[in-house]
Amino acid sequence: MSSTPEVSSLPRGEDNQPLPIFSGSASINDSNPTPSATQTVGVANEGDDTDTHFQKKKRVKKSAVWLEFTEETINGELKARCNHCKSVLKVHKSGSTTHFNRHLEACIHRKKNQIQLQQ
Ligand SMILES: [Zn+2]
Known about the structure:
By secondary structure, the chain is an alpha+beta fold. The chain has helices at 46-57, 98-106, 108-118, and strands at 69-74, 77-82, 88-90.
């Protein structure tokens, strides 16, 4: 029977370093409402701005279909040009590339290239 006593008798030296004391910040009776930061009232083009804002915030990861498409900006709009048949597809802002895949499946030029590669 060996009972391990959990008495840690480590000698604790007194801290000589004075800790910074935050006085008053923890009081519950803090009836001082924090003054809200000055709100910038300069909202212009709120509707048009959302798209670019979204793109900046969340950059869509490039999917594998982009290996067969080339990004092109036509009239300020982002487009995708098929590397095989040079046809231009719309680039969805949501990052959806399902229509790219659909095009690749139906792209005759691509099929030709694949057949040539197999020979
Ligand atoms: Zn194509």
